[in-house]
Amino acid sequence: MPTYDYFCSDCNEAIEIFQSMSDPDVEKCPTCSSTEIRKLISVGSGVIFKGSGFYATDNRTKTSQD
């Protein structure tokens, strides 16, 4: 599920909210219940590869020709 950033102008709080892409935008600040909340444009996250060898060692067997 994506993380969306919101900012409330009444309490100056930046909030991260996990919600589905099909969910409607948040209309009330969860901190102060104000309706002065807006969705921020964020960069998002990139793909993170964890583990060893994402090409050289994946599913590759050593032979005498290598």
TrEMBL record:
Residues 1-42 form the Putative regulatory protein FmdB zinc ribbon domain. SMART domains: CxxC_CXXC_SSSS (SM00834). InterPro entries: Regulatory_FmdB_Zinc_ribbon. It holds the Pfam family Zn_ribbon_8. NCBIfam families: CxxC_CxxC_SSSS (TIGR02605). This is Zinc ribbon domain-containing protein.
